[in-house]
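Handoff note, outgoing to incoming analyst
You'll be picking up this chain. Sequence as last confirmed:
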Amino acid sequence: MKRIYQIAKEMGISSKAMLKLLKKLGYDAASPMAPMGKEMLDACTEYLKKDKEKVKNIELEKRKIRARIPPSTYEKLKEKQLREKGRAEQKMRETMTKIKMGERTKRYKKEIKEEVVEDRSKQILLAELTSVRELADFLRTDPLDLIAKCIKLGLNVTINHRLDFETAATIASEYGCEATLSATYEEEEVEELSLATEPRYPIVTVMGHVDHGKTTLLDYIRHTNVVESEVGRITQHIVILVIAANEGAKPQTVEAINHAKDAAVPIIVAITKSDLPEANPDEAEKQLLDYSVVTEKYGGDVPCCKISAKTGDGIRGLLETILIMAELLELKTNTKVEAKATIIETKLDKGRGPIATAIIHQGILKIGDPILAGNTSGKVRALFNEWGKSKNKALPSDPIQIVGLDDIPQVGDILRVVSDEREAREICRMRKMSIRDEVAKGRKPVIEDMQLIGMEKNKELKIIIKSDVAGSAEALSDMLQNLNQEEIKISIVHQAAGEINESDILLAAASGAMVLGFNAKENANAYQMAKEKNVSIRTYNIIYNAIEDIQNTLKGLIPPKFEEYDIGKAEVKQVFKISGVGFVIGCLVIQGKVVRGEKVRVKRENTVVYEGIIDSLKRIKDPVKEVMEGIECGIGFEESVKLEQGDLIEVYGIKEVTQK
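Most recent structure output, in case you need it:
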């Protein structure tokens, strides 16, 4: 018996359309993978046959209507259009002839000049902060004249002095211009859905808990061996989704589910390690119900495949499910527009320079294309696929490594092909200026001495992260942020890909931060500078070792808590005044014990009348260290204190409690 998606393919319609048709005909079909019985097939065939007849009849009626229109009507419309086109061309030729002969040259230039002034003098766009030179360019005046104008207004400025928007707008009004605040420069998003008609491959993200077989699954599919090349056999650069049949849902599994739901992405559950003796795939599938992931087995719409990445069982079914899901999504793209991609990884290579790994969304990226990504630009010098093989172009859905950017972009930046390198550089300049203005506007003073941080109300551990690739730096940053506690916070001062260099050490010294290198080492100059400036550098090649080490560091920085504990209580029975000694209080120990040298709190009718330390303690006439419950004693304090009969003396101690 064939499945629904197979019958749909034979009939020349999509699986999604077939599911809608079956629902319309009264059949309960939740998934394209469901089998299709003879009754369902016959009903669909009959319906489609009638539908084709209906369409055929409508087309015949349209032809009859078109046949009734007199042929002369179309000819008349065409003739009218040709006449109008001819008149427009004739008028244009006459105008150009007059201009060449000089008849309208003077007036033409005047009109153009007036239009330029009208368009550009009234409205100008200014950033949050604008230099005097830039403002002079906007106002089409000499910078020296503008400086003179500022001095008259009481502003002592230089040509590079940066004016805030309000000041710049006031000066612009003196020149008859109205200033408008421009937002942070962003590229214009152009929707071209109407042109996106070409099918594209799906981009599949695999996620899940550590050691649940994610990399092994990819190895089987791609016929590679990623696991053996990884330190500690832990995936460091790949984000994937699966659930192990022998362990079920784990914390990172839940986190992956939440990420998928937040992004509104369809989920396909792959239960791995189903071949193990202790495997219980049914229980693992059932656990997903607690997180609102309802598989097809329990009446939901989430496909579930039970697989073994080692034996290959169920892998083909998983791949078929991915293709069916992609077909239902009806993914389209357009290769006729400028290429657009998303940066998913970056790194700094000693030989090639900045390298960005991207997924192509639309268009075709070719060698030689001028590109823009975030705050950096460049020109594509080389392209490499996931196997390191050189390519001349990259198509939609292709993962591609791009060489040619001037600097390392951020993961998540949108990479675009622009008209030329000059435009790309100008956009980068505007973006950097906007960021600089925002930083200057909201800059806060930094604490330069790590020891002073402990004196602040809220402690802060500052960290600079450098890694071999940007994705690892981002992942490590996110995990470190989760270690924040009430008493001490982690602040990521800077994170980037590449080796630890002198700039990182200078930043660490200025901000009081430590430098954390993940699969990244410091160069010789940075090492020497770190020793001179007493900057701590820690390097790791396993992410969990870094997390554990920072956790231990936090424990050492968190101040201990002090708790008060009861030692004993005594009731004042009589007060004696001894010459040269002061007051001696005769007491009866009613609870616990009284110990010399411990702290006391004296209460009279629940009101504290004295706090101090027991200076002397005697039993009869002999000095003692402590007196137990039920025994009378004499107590003396450091100060001369007169107590009254009935006062309650509480003896207590303070102990230090280290926080976990």
